[in-house]
Amino acid sequence: MMSMTGKVIFAGGGTGGHVYPALACIEALLNKGKFDILYVGGHQGIENKIVPRFHYAFKKIWISGFQRTFTLKNILFPFKLLVSLLQSVIILSKYKPDVVVGTGGYVSGPVVYTAAKMGIPTLVQEQDSYPGLTTRLLARYSDVVCVPYDEVIPLLKKVKGSIIVTGVPVRRSLQLPDRQSALKEWDFRNDLPVVLIFGGSQGAQSLNRAMLSIIPKIMRQSPVQLLWQTGERNFDEIRQTSIAGEPGIQILDYIHSMEKAYAAADIIVSRAGAITLAELSMVQKPCILVPYPFAAAQHQEKNAETIAGLGAAIIVKEGEDFEEKLAGAMNTLLNDSQLATSMGQKWQKVYRPDASEKIATEIINLMAN
After folding, report:
1. Nearest 5°: CA angle at 249, between 248 and 254?
2. CA distance 96 to 114
3. Which domain holds residue 161?
4. DSSP per-residue letters across 298-311
5. 222-246: b or e for each residue (b if 16 or more CB lie within 10 Å)?
6. Distance CA 297, CA 307 (A)
7. Which residue has the higher pLDDT, 72 or 267?
8. Is the pLDDT of residue 73 over 70?
9. Res. 251: pLDDT tops 80
């Protein structure tokens, strides 16, 4: 019989893309039994703001990311790695976990590697279409690797244990309300389409600037309403433009009720981070994906290509004629309702609502073995 109690360490950080999957898995695990959870993060990552809100035990190690361009910060990396490995030994020896779970990013490397060497069962969860460096390295030592899509499996060349396709864990609290109540949140009309624009929690400067140029042209061609999350950095600048005063345009620095934003939207323009795509697979609306061009190993571009290959989204890459191509994609979806509907339906191919439950089950199985 599988154990329904135990100690589990989760390690992952640097970005929300590594933290939120861990929190989704923790939530699913706690729904299955009584587990003692410890979260290990870095000193500077976003996990320092997010994890304490959930009141889980929280420890930090010194590790930070290795920059892919030359910087003096990289000189300290070997020393930080050594110290972080020693810190991991101390944490693991004191906490004595039954399983250690890594959800990617530089933080999970030392913790999962050390746990594997100490004989502690380990699981690695990957979110992206192209596995990150940490996942590719840890797959050689981990008992289970959970990946989002079948296409990821051949990209992991050296794997110690089993590879399981689970999808990307998404928080269960993200439940869409009915569209009418969502429209009322921002005083939107029911008879005009709503375009939701967001570039992640921090916004996207290049996307924001493109939209400033595009929106007047779009609104002259098609009656439309806009819900635009700019991010804090660009909010004041955009709020002072003439566009901000146009009827049917809501400009926010941050959307706290994303479930309402998703429900109100007819078309979505966004980056292509793994967590965003996992949420969009649940929302199932036609999307224009603008991958962040400087993401590590171009993983956002590869994520977007996976989704576009299914016919569920249009990719518009930054670069030459970016604004023209973005405006063209928006006009296409606004003026072709049949295409927009078809694209929304094709998200069903990657929708995996039970991803976090599957991973929680794998964690419990590791305890039982």
Report:
1. 140
2. 12
3. 5-169+353-368
4. GHHHHHHHHHHHTT
5. eebbbbbbbbeebbeebeeeebeee
6. 17
7. 267
8. no
9. yes
Phi, psi at residue 313, to the nearest 5°?
-155, 160
Residues near 52 by beta carbon (within 8 Å), at least 6 away in sequence: 58
Task: Give the list of residues 6+ apart from residue 174 with CB closer than 8 angstroms, or none.
Answer: 258, 259, 279, 282
**What residue type is assigned to position 305 of the chain?**
E
At 1, the pLDDT band (50, 70, 90 cuts) reads very low
Helix (H) or strand (E) holding 207: helix 205-221
For residue 170, which of 197, 148, 145 has the smallest C-alpha distance?
148
Looking at the fold, whether 195 and 72 belong to one and the same domain comes out as no
Are 344 and 357 within one domain?
no
Q: How far apart are the C-alpha atoms of 353 and 281, rounded to whole Å?
A: 9
The first and second tokens of residue 190, run together, are 């029911």
Residue-averaged pLDDT of the chain: 90
One-letter identity of residue 165: V
| Cα R_g (the chain), whole angstroms | 21
Rounded Cα distance between 229 and 338, Å, is 27
Report the distance separating Cα 369 and Cα 65, nearest Å. Answer: 34
Compute how many other C-beta atoms are within 10 angstroms of the C-beta atom of residue 96: 10
Query: pLDDT, tens digit, for every residue of 14-44?
Result: 888 889 999 999 999 999 999 999 999 998 8
CA pair distance 33, 30, nearest whole angstrom: 5
CATH number of the structural domain spanning residue 73:
3.40.50.2000
Q: Rounded to a whole number, what is the distance in angstroms from the first to the last CA of the chain?
A: 10
Same domain, 161 and 107: yes
Residue 174 lies in a domain: no
Query: CA 333, CA 336: separation in Å to the nearest integer?
Result: 5
Closest residue by Cα to residue 128 from 96, 88, 155, 159:
155
Euclidean distance between CA atoms 272 and 292, whole angstroms: 7
Angle at CA of residue 127, ends 121 and 128, nearest 5°: 130
